[in-house]
Design goal:
139 residues; Jelly Rolls; three-stranded antiparallel beta sheet; 11 strands; 0% helix; carbohydrate binding; CBM6 domain-containing protein; Galactose-bd-like_sf
């Protein structure tokens, strides 16, 4: 399955914080403003159904959240950007971890977006997003 990425609303690529797990050590920053977003377009989803969407991220010692949208439909559950690693305030380098949400995708091309909407706390760096068929932790 191939994917492409589009950034909007002030989101930009960077690589100065160590620890990102992307293949090139880069990540997306600038999400902490309403309207900032990352959109992945996935070509070739093999079949319609339930998928878990995983997001790799870092937060600077505090919890955050963002809006998840798939195929133009906002999820009722935010992307929970928790400080699972216990990083201290301002320490993005120690805050790298992952989270996941459930989505229902169609066969063929699909879009998945992580964005900062009104009321979100999006002070996070995003280094990857990937899909796994099925809902994690559920049969």
């Amino acid at each position: 399955m191939n994917s492409s990425v589009q950034l909007a609303g002030g989101a930009t690529r960077a690589s100065d914080v160590k620890g990102a797990q992307s293949s090139d050590g880069g990540y997306v920053t600038g999400l902490n403003q309403a309207g900032a977003s990352i959109t992945w377009t996935f070509d070739g989803i093999p079949k319609a159904g339930k998928y878990s969407v995983y997001v790799g991220y870092s937060v600077p010692g505090k919890d955050g959240n963002a809006t998840l949208t798939f195929n133009g439909t906002p999820s009722t559950y935010p992307v929970k950007l928790k400080n699972w690693t216990g990083a201290t305030a301002g320490d993005y380098e120690k805050g790298w971890t992952t989270t996941y949400n459930y989505v229902e995708l169609k066969q063929g091309p699909n879009t998945v977006s992580v964005s900062c909407g009104q009321g979100n706390q999006c002070d996070a760096l995003i280094d990857r997003l990937w899909l796994v068929e099925g809902w994690a932790g559920r049969s």
